[in-house]
Specification:
This protein is mainly alpha-helical and 359 residues long. It is built from 13 helices and 3 strands. It has helices at 6-33, 39-64, 72-89, 97-123, 129-147, 193-211, 214-224, 226-231, 236-259, 272-285, 290-309, 316-331, 334-358, and strands at 150-154, 157-161, 175-179. The longest helix is centred in the N-terminal third of the chain and has 28 residues, at 6-33.
Length: 359
Amino acid sequence: MKKLTPGRKRLIDNSITYGIVIAAFIILQVCNAGGLLSPSIQGQLVPICAYVVMAIALNLVVGISGELSLGHAGFMSVGAFSGVVAALSLQDVIPNDALRLALAMVIGAALAGVAGVIVGVPVLRLRGDYLAIVTLAFGEIIRNIFNVLYVGVDQNGLHFSLQNEMALGLAEGGKSILKGPMGFTTNVKMATFTAGFILVLIALTVALNLVNSRSGRAIMALRDNRIAAESVGIGATKYKLMAFVTSAVMAGAAGVLYAMNYSSMAPKKFDFNTSILILVFVVLGGIGNIRGSIIAAAFLTYLPELLRNFNLDEYRMLVYAIVLILVMLVTNNPMLKSVFTFAGRKAKKEEAEKGGAVQ
């Protein structure tokens, strides 16, 4: 039996990941067309796509780069609010919702990438707990900035203020977009499940290509042994910044998609708890396992709504926490690991014996 080369194995593994995403989209679209999806599931489709992209993004930093970031909700908020401002400002210029949503995603992703560079250049020189603390502080700083930021638009362009809505000085016919702690309250629901699916495919393609590229191998070499990698000329700051900024860009685009699914949203939505939730997706799906992160993000995003359907409103979060604990216990059970390891070794042994028999 012919042994698969590493490149062939990687191609098969990536094809399975793409297949799972595409199959899920087709099945959900068919069920939706047939009226088989409940309103609660329909309402969760876009947030699931946004959180899947966030899980892929954070896995680039935590799993592939080996750094702990606790501030990805900050990048998500940068994309969300800048995308909303862009979409509402261009409403008269670009009447097509799909085109305006795409442009808002590009703007949100670009500004989140700029924030990633600003944060990443000084922060990625730190290691371990120091990096986690600084990224956590960044997320809280961004949230507090949006809490006091007022943005409006009129025929003279955009107006900004850190005082109140009246300080914007909008001309007649102008409109306020961001209103400090209230966030945006204008109906900008332009996000669709199809747009979310396309964004997931783009994020997945970027992540897998980066991981399997020369730069990706350099990033993983720094994760496994930084001293050895630097000794052969791999620049730690350059490659870690590459992963960090790419992750921030994805988070910004996901933030735009998420915000465009609601008629209003406040900055408090993107607090520390959101960053931890995204980290939970990565940990439960397997650190460094992009496919696992996708499945974990989709399942855990819908789990609270599923529990609500069973009339467990009062105990919903309690059951959710218990499920998380059970999943962690099962995935870290040495007995189960030994079973899978034994099965894998047995399969390899049988394969080797068959190969010897053929020869």
